[in-house]
């Protein structure tokens, strides 16, 4: 399913000056109209990205990292058992830090040990499985989750649709300006495109260290994600 939302911003100027684009002089004998058109396409996402991490505490750095590695291996093995391809699991950060508490009475920092953490980013290609996999990660030992972030793996078709609609709308509006100014035709002088990023619902961080795992999978609603193009077109008005 694909839907489209159209947002258009116009700035028009009737000028009798040459147009310039990337150091190439484009001669025009008639007035020039310049329009900026934004076209946005919404579609059902086909990819979801979630983050999963494990945090471990221990008296020594070696023990903290060892414990953390064991727990993270359980998480990764669980993901693979659920059918997630190895290429879709990527380590995004490994940290090891000393832990201190501030002793108010002694007015000084007190060493408490070490904390190790490991995070992975996971791409899920079965949207309906997102809730089940999130719950499985908690069972496997993940102590914090973030996401989900929904997107289109390939938004080229959506962008092509947006581009075609933007050009059509730009020409239609430019022709309206031309006719209002007493001209009947247009000559395209320049097209510039700015591509906006893919967007979807903002992800949320969940700390699950003290959460009880529900018997049913976490509810996940993918909604729609959007992709857009922003074009600026210049036309010469011709009689």
From TrEMBL:
Pfam families (alphabetical): SIMPL (PF04402)
Signal peptide positions on this chain: 1-21
Swiss-Prot/TrEMBL keywords: Signal
InterPro entries, per database record: 26kDa_periplasmic_antigen, SIMPL/DUF541
Chain ranges passing through the membrane: none
Domain of life: Bacteria
GO biological process: DNA damage response
Keyword match Heme: no
The name this protein goes by in its record: SIMPL domain-containing protein
UniProt organism field: Qipengyuania aquimaris
């Amino acid at each position: 399913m694909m839907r489209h939302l159209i947002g258009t911003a116009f700035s028009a100027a009737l000028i009798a000056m040459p147009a310039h684009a990337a150091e190439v002089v484009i001669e025009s004998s008639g007035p020039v109209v310049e329009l900026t058109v934004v076209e946005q396409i919404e579609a059902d996402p086909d990819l979801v990205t979630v983050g999963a991490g494990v945090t471990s505490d221990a008296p020594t750095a070696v023990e903290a990292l060892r414990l953390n590695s064991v727990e993270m291996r359980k998480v990764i093995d669980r993901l693979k058992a659920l059918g997630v391809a190895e290429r879709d699991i990527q380590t995004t950060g490994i940290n090891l830090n000393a832990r201190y508490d501030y002793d108010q009475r002694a007015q000084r920092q007190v060493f408490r040990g070490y904390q190790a953490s490991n995070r992975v980013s996971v791409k899920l290609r079965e949207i309906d499985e997102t809730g089940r996999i999130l719950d499985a990660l908690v069972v496997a030992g993940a102590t914090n989750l973030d996401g989900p972030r929904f997107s289109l793996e390939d938004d080229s078709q959506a962008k092509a649709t947006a581009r075609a609609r933007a050009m059509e709308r730009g020409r239609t509006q430019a022709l309206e300006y031309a006719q209002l100014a007493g001209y009947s035709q247009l000559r395209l002088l320049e097209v510039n495109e700015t591509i906006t990023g893919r967007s979807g619902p903002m992800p949320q961080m969940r700390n699950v260290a003290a959460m009880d795992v529900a018997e049913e999978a976490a509810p996940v609603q993918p909604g729609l994600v959007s992709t857009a193009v922003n074009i600026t077109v210049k036309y010469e008005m011709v009689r």
